[in-house]
Amino acid sequence: MSMNSLYLTVPLAPLAGALLAGLFGRAIGRTGSHVVTILGVAIALVASFFIAQDVFAGHEFNGDVYTWIATEGVAMHVGFLIDPLTVTMMLVVTFVSLMVHIYTIGYMHEDPGYQRFFSYISLFTFSMLMLVMSNNFLQLFFGWEAVGLVSYLLIGFWYTRPTAIYANLKAFLVNRVGDFGFLLGIGLVLAYFGTLDYATVFSQAPAMAGRSIELVSGSPVSLMTAICLLLFVGAMGKSAQMPLHVWLPDSMEGPTPISALIHAATMVTAGIFMVSRMSPLFELSETARSVILVIGGSTAFFMALLGLVQNDIKRVVAYSTLSQLGYMTVALGASAYPVAIFHLGTHAFFKALLFLAAGSVIHAMHHEQDMRHMGGLRKYMPITYWTSLMGSLALAGIPPFAGFFSKDAIIEAVGASDIAGSGYAYAAVLAGVFVTAFYSFRMLFMTFHGKPRMDDHTREHLHESPWVITVPLVLLAIPSVVAGMVFVEPMLVGQYFGHSIVILPQDDALHELKEEWHGVAGFVLHGLQSLPFWLAIAGIAMAAAFYLKWTRLPGLVQDMMGSIPTLLRNNYYFDRFNEVFFAAGARCLGQGLWKVGDVFLIDGALVNGSARLVGKLSERIRRFQTGYIYHYAFVMIFGVFVLMSLWFVRV
Amino acid sequence: MNFTPPLLAPAYPEIFLLMALSALLLLDLVVPDNRRFLTYAYSQLALVATGVLLVGGATGHVFSTFGGMFLDDPLARSLKVVALLAMALVLAYSRTYNQRHGLFRGEFYVLTLFALLGIMVMISANHFLVLYLGLELLSLSTCALIALQRDSSVATEAAMKYFVLAALASGLLLYGLSMLYGATGSLYMPQVANAIASGVADPAILVLGLVTRRAGLSFKLGVVPFHMWVPDVYEGAPTAVTLFVSTVPKIAAFAFFVRMLVGTLSPMVSDWQSMLVIVSVLSMLVGNVTAIAQTNVKRMLAYSTISHMGFLLLGILSGTVGGFAAAMFYVVAYVLMSLGAFGLILLLGREGFEVNSLDDLKGLNKRSPWYAFMMLLVMISMAGIPVSVGFFAKLSVLSAVLDAGMTWLVVFAVLMSLIGAFYYLRVIKLMYMDEPSDISPLVAEADHRILMGLNGMAILVLGIVPQPLIDLCMFSVTRSLGSG
Question: Do A640 and B419 touch (CB under 8 A)?
């Protein structure tokens, strides 16, 4: 089998699974559906492994598979760019997807939409793979929109629930804002580079660095800054950065497996991946990176705070996802793209783990999600507990768990960066460490420790989840523990990414880290003596104090804080603002345009008016057709006469 | 004095068709009325054999024979193939109709095949008299075809109108030819071209000849102001004949327009270009606007044809090789669409009943979703909506005009096709949203059903992958006219 067909296999195998389960789901039944989809994703995973081996043996690939449209100016292709960055994403996506597929068998086994669900998640896997494997902006955009579509379908999977419909509409609309920016960015690229091919654009980019354009006449903007900021707006929508983050918490209305797959591990990281892929462009605009730092820092800290006041177990994990995405974004701003991808990978494992563990708890609790009605689950669900503990330790950044390495590297990189906004971002991510440790252990303690607070009926039925649920948990726990140790050296210090990520020497925030590198053990030792570690320990200790020892303390603290908890519970009033300003405002504007613009002007005057005019004209002309042959002959002769006279006058 | 026999190979298809026709005349005498299917099958067979000769003998090079009067080039070959295909479809679609309406007679087949022979001769003409010969063969056969139902007063009236007006048009054409002969001293197209290019010809006489000759040819295309016969003939003639009149002759007219204007009159490009602009604008305006007021579906399609011919002229008047290729694409697309539309109308007719009113299409979707869908394809294609061949046809002629720098004309044409969309969409609305007055399901013979399906699919498929057809048009035009 040649490599090219192997590349094709990776996205097409899940697609085939999705089509089979989606179109013939009824015929092949429940078992048939999960067998074909799991098989598809498993094939993709195995193929990705082979490709990864090949890539790290030095065989990168960049080529087109199919030409969709070729016009004079632009050719649009479907093509693959296979390099270390791509295969990393391919492995993460297919692995997490496979785990989620298996988990779904147990989680959704009672759901009437079983086959539909499998079809969707396989379709998602296909779309995400097309996104990461693309070698051009158009296919990137296709994948970008396709994952958005599947996300929309899955958030509204239980479409009879009004809240689910509200949530998927919200996700759709907010992403539209981001995608609009993204599309404009791609448009700018096409306008100035004349191509959508990555390699060509990247090679021409340095020559374009000095160019500026006038978006508003009289005020020139650097072309690169404009392109990068517009592309980043797209990333803000997909990766839920403030202020476009509002859709992600609501997306928890969807079934838990997709919260793990789409809204934690893969799709939301598409923005991070995209910026890393575009590193040759982003390196050319310091302004854009400053903006990225500030937005990422704000998201990292303020979204972590929101995690403190949530009682819905899934929402805590959701806000933690937002905050962790902020960390990755900060790394991008600091030009530490490898670190961002590193954290993306480790986060994908431990966050998928936490979500699936939360799902396991929810499943056992008969779809109860409120942590105030849980507690003491440790002894009923040991596997879920231990895996959750590992996930939480990774999230909090305790060595030697995976999250420690990537998070510490981010903090180091931001500290080393000296562009505008890096000071603010450094403070934000540092403070975020404490908050993260606090809320993640608050969740762990409230769920698994303390006295059981559920009703007797639920308690009697408590039991560990079936193997299809626990096996993925265990399989995800393994990389959550070891992925950091294994990959920290090649990814951060070595030449893991090769030429797939470009960092200018003067921006290289990892430079210091590389110079002082004394092996993994040295990195851990160094971490143990640094501030972030102690902040994390303090956060865990405080969570233990609040929720294990003195359980009345949280109430007292809340009372002392005044209006701050209310502010947090209302998500800083972002939703309220959007509803009042954008939603109501847009409705008002729409109403006005409809009444005046459409009904009166367009329909009344233009459309019906011109239609009446044409109708009258038609009646007139029709009368020429008298049916008399001498009239017809006359018209012909007259026509010849007129043309002849016209030309004789001219000649 | 010695005599060298002319090279016959380039004209084999025509010669074969003529012999097959003569045999058909004899055959028809001995075939009893209840075995008339034999005549039909024989005619189709003759078409297929002619087609095989055409395709088999295609070389991709330019030949002329009969002392240079007859031209065989890729343009002629491909247009003839299209004409043959269209003719085969015409015969297939009209078979059932003819049986029901007492037209299933040898005359129908003899006359249509003679008309086809005329068309093929026109396509290959390299001498104005050969052109005239083909044209008259076509005109007279058509006239007889229209009058085939000789006890129908409407048909006789239509035939009378066609005959008189065609005679007038022929007169004008001959008049123009005599001017040309007077000015250049030859009727061979290449010699005429040389004479004009060298400047020995008197421009006044040339222009006079140009106007009258163009008038004669415009009659065949049916463009304003030579269009008056079109609605009356479309309505009056038996639908099977309308199907023929609206499709195959347009191919010949296109071929000849291109040959005359490009091959011989290219030095006078500015003259004929502005003449064609006037005619094309008028055709699009009159065709589209008048079609709106029609309640008779055949008349509506007649006006729609007029506007399509206006669009076709747009491609020709751009005066570039790309424009001619676009016009060729347009004519092929138009023939496909027209075949589909009339094919369906033929199908809707029953014993002693012809579909005339637009209301007869009401609720077609309930009676037969498949045919309604085919008609839907035809209508969106005629309106020029994407994913249909009509879209690319319009797009290519418009971009040719745009390249020629006449932006206002493009804007006008787009506006006109917007108006046109109204009456095409009305048909779709009638078929899909109104209640049928007659709920009997449509019954059709298998061949008609399959061919209708292929026809509709061709419209769709060429709308998705137009490139092969575009390439063919480009190849034919550049090979045949590129040097001229």
Answer: no
